């Protein structure tokens, strides 16, 4: 089975490349990044892997979603955002998510 190459971007703009298995879930990735925190990311260090969240194509990845399920292109580096957030919006809560955006102060803008 081929490896999946991820480039993770922090809100600060700092990036780091990692390699994972297609069987790795969003929770596995957060744990690995937390345990192997890049030296250049010291200012962004978090207290627990449980608050690290991945964003792919504008959507939060829930913990049990595997890289294989995303059908990422093989042999290419896929870019995802890594953010610290206590809770995730509920799946399919589009109306609520739009309402939250107006009151949320620590969101990131995806261009």
Please, could you describe this protein's structure?
- It comes from Hippocampus comes.
- The chain has 111 residues and is of the alpha+beta class.
- The chain has one domain (4-87): Phosphatidylinositol 3-kinase Catalytic Subunit, Chain A, domain 1 (Ubiquitin-like (UB roll), Roll), CATH 3.10.20.90.
- The protein has helices at residues 26-35, 94-103, and strands spanning 4-9, 15-20, 52-56, 59-60, 77-84.
- Strands 2-1-5-3-4 form a five-stranded mixed sheet, with helices on one face.
Number of strands: 5
| Share of residues in strands | 15-25%
CATH topology: Ubiquitin-like (UB roll)
The residue ranges in which pLDDT falls below 50 over 5 or more consecutive positions are 95-105
Largest sheet: 5 strands, mixed
Question: Average pLDDT, to the nearest integer?
Answer: 85
Gyration radius, rounded: 14 Å
Task: Tell me the number of structural domains.
Answer: 1
Derived from helix and strand composition plus strand pairing, the structural class reads alpha+beta
Assign an overall shape: globular
**Termini gap:** 32 Å
Q: What is the H-and-E element order? A: EEHEEEH
Order of the strands making up the biggest sheet: 2-1-5-3-4
Helix content: 10-25%
CATH architecture: Roll
């Amino acid at each position: 089975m081929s490896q999946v190459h991820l480039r993770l971007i922090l809100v600060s703009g700092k990036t780091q490349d990692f390699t994972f298995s297609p069987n790795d879930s969003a929770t596995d990735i957060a744990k690995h990044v937390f345990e192997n925190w890049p030296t250049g990311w010291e200012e962004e260090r978090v207290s627990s892997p449980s608050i690290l969240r991945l964003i792919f194509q504008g959507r939060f990845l829930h913990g049990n979603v595997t890289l294989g399920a995303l059908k990422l292109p093989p042999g290419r580096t896929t870019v995802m955002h890594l953010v610290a957030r206590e809770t995730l919006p509920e799946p399919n809560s589009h109306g609520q998510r739009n309402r939250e955006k107006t009151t949320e102060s620590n969101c990131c803008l995806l261009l």
